[in-house]
Specification:
Blueprint lengths: L20 E5 L17 H15 L3 E5 L16 H11 L3 E3 L6 H9 L5 E3 L7 H4 L3 H9 L3 E4 L21 E3 L1 H15 L5 E5 L8 H7 L5 E4 L4 H7 L3 E2 L9 H14 L2 E3 L3 E5 L9 E4 L2 E2 L4 E5 L1 H12 L3 E5 L12 H12 L3 E4 L2 H9 L8 E2 L3 H8 L5 H4 L5
Parallel strand pairs: 1-2, 1-5, 2-4, 3-4, 5-6, 7-8, 7-15, 8-10, 9-13, 15-16, 16-17
Antiparallel strand pairs: 11-12, 11-14
Helix pairs in contact: 1-2, 8-9, 10-11
Length: about 400
Amino acid sequence: MEKVAVYNKKSITDIDVAGKKVLLRCDFNVPINKETGKIRDEGRIIAALPTINYLLEQGAAVIACSHFGRPKGEFKPEFSLAQVAESLSGHLGKTVKMAKDVVGPDAVGLAAALQSGEIMLLENTRFHAEEEKNDAEFAKKLAAMADVYVSDAFGSVHRAHASTEGVSKYLPAVSGFLLKKELDYIGGAIGSPKRPLVAILGGAKVSDKLGVISNLLKISDAIIIGGGMAYTFFKAEGGKIGNSLCEDEQLESVLKCKAEAKERGVKLLLPLDTVVGAEFSNDVEPIVVDSGAIPDGMMGMDIGPKSVAEFVKEISNAGTVIWNGPMGVFEFSKFAEGTKAVAEAVAKSDAVSIIGGGDSAAAVRKFGLEDKITHISTGGGASLEFMEGKALPGIVCLLDA
């Protein structure tokens, strides 16, 4: 097996923050209820608390910042972080001072007056177009308010933005607890896994996961493929897929993946059977057919019972499981069984289990199994790129341990 590059970076416990001003990049891009405009899920705010509490207890003054939504470089009141400051104040039991701007006079004034053990929140960093352009002047202004930079927004580290990477050119940069946990768990799973390492990949598009498959083929003992991406494999092998999802431009790529798996001695498990429906709806009758033999006019919506049995058996023997992407349309109750069975098998196994954010994380929470998973990643795109072996700018920029 080949070794995959992992990160060894300094965290907040490796530096002295007492009496220092800390620019803390959080992920406060919280989901909002469209009707009320209120925060629908405070999960990301709660996830930031251990790092914030530690910094405050150590005598730091915390200048928190985050993006929120897509205001496209303009000040738009509906994208204000004011209600995040309110929520954070409640959880911390102390006032979070809310700046009216990001690098303007109000933010700079509040930051200058901030005392040890106090916390403030800058306005949405994406109110400035310079944020996503990683503009040096904007990054310098952000950095000028603080003595140290702490990155704790794993969901944004695959982007080289001013608040995720640019500021590290002007301040010593380390990880917070949330980011360190991601590096430890995902880095451990791909760098020195407990074997056998079983990777489960699902979701709609195989094109989204080709890089991940390619990287995991170097280190995995078995790769399980489910979800919409499986139908591209079946069509490539000459199977009938009816109206199922398929990326015709990837037929050659998936055949190469199969050939590489064979060459490396990695088990590549595709579904043996498929649950199909006449249309993309929960109101249709689910029918089980053999994979690669889907009738015309039907579309694959989930893995079938034979596939479930084979996948569950593989998972039960695993030492490490990495899972990214559902096995079918789990949002529809009639087509959720495959994803549910896989989630239950992962939860039941003795393996170190890593769920790579996004839909897999939503599925695990939907089935009430989150407490039985070793680590659920906070970043969908970032965890995929991490598993793909890509250099993540928001991590590369941190000080080496």
